[in-house]
Amino acid sequence: AIHQSSTLLNETIYEKLAASMRRERLQQLYTLCLGDIEERIARMRQTASNKEDAAFRRDAHAIKGGAGMVGAIELQMLAGDLEEDGIDANHVASLDELMTSCERLRLILLARKIVERTNTA
């Protein structure tokens, strides 16, 4: 399925951020945000396997907030679902979906030269 960038990135929020700061700062913001989200997803995999529901929901909440701040609509929505559901039978698929959304957003930002290509697989 091809996801339109409009479902991934709120252009209004993106434009406001782009207009309010230098390009380098915008790049830093998105790079830090995506890095933080990826770290939290990795931690959520661990807390889920340890059955630490509260910690899992805390990271989901933080992702939701960070994603909302930068206009990452799909990430915000997926993280909101994870925060609500906590560790359920489907958390592995849900975390994979969250990571895929993160990668798709990175590709959009890469095309706009907002983030650097990473060497991670």
Secondary structure tally: strands: 0
Q: Which shape, going by the Cα principal axes? A: elongated
Determine the fraction of residues in helical runs and give it as a percent range. over 70%
Query: Given the structure, what is the number of helices?
Result: 6
| Poorly predicted runs of 5 or more residues | none
Q: Evaluate the radius of gyration.
A: 14 Å
Structural class: mainly alpha
End-to-end CA span: 21 Å
The topology string of helices and strands comes to HHHHHH
Describe the protein in words:
The chain has 121 residues and is mainly α. It is 77% helix and 0% strand. The protein is built from six helices and no strands. It has helices at 5-8, 11-20, 23-49, 53-70, 73-85, 91-111. Helix 3 packs antiparallel against helix 4, helix 3 runs antiparallel to helix 6 and helix 5 (73-85) runs antiparallel to helix 6 (91-111). The two termini are 21 Å apart. The mean pLDDT is 91.
What is shown here, in short?
By secondary structure, this protein is mostly helical.
Which labels suit this protein?
single chain; 121 residues; mainly alpha; 6 helices; 77% helix; elongated
Secondary structure topology:
Blueprint lengths: L4 H4 L2 H10 L2 H27 L3 H18 L2 H13 L5 H21 L10
